[in-house]
Amino acid sequence: MQGKRISESSVIMVQPMSPQDANQSGNVQGGVIMKLIDLAGAIVAPPSTARVCPVIKAASL
Predict the structure, then answer these.
(1) How far apart, in whole angstroms, are the C-alpha atoms of residue 19 and residue 42?
(2) Is pLDDT above 80 for 59?
(3) Are 27 and 21 in contact, with CB atoms under 8 Å apart?
(4) pLDDT tens track for 6-31
(5) Straight-line distance from the first to the last Cα atom of the chain, in angstroms, rounded to the nearest whole number
(6) pTM higher than 0.70 for the full model?
(7) CB-based contacts of 56: which residues, under 8 Å, 6+ apart?
(8) Which of 8, 26, 50, 58 could form a disulfide with 4 if both were Cys (CB 3.0 to 4.6 A apart)?
(9) Shortest CA distance to 36 belongs to which of 59, 51, 55?
(10) Can you tell me the distance from the alpha carbon of 14 to that of 9, in angstroms, rounded to the nearest whole number?
């Protein structure tokens, strides 16, 4: 199986944030952002691989 270019495996997501997604300072909570990153990875990963794969290291955020 040949690899794909990043431009061939991309997704654009739009998610409205609500007050329940924010902390007391009004910033979107990190867990909400990580969940969206995980969802985006789940959308693009299946066509590229037939196995379970990690999406991102939390340390690299």
Answers:
(1) 26
(2) no
(3) no
(4) 777 788 999 999 999 999 999 999 99
(5) 29
(6) no
(7) 37, 38, 41
(8) 8
(9) 55
(10) 17
Tokens of 2: 């040949």
Percent of the chain with pLDDT over 70: 74
Greater confidence (54 vs 26) lies with 26
The secondary structure of 1-61, three-state, reads CCCCCHHHCCCCCCCCCCHHHECCCCCECHHHHHHHHHHHHHHHHHHHCCCCCCCCCHHHC
Residue 48's contacts (CB-CB under 8 Å, 6 or more residues apart) are 4, 9
Tokens of 17: 């944030």
Tell me the Cα Rg of the chain: 14
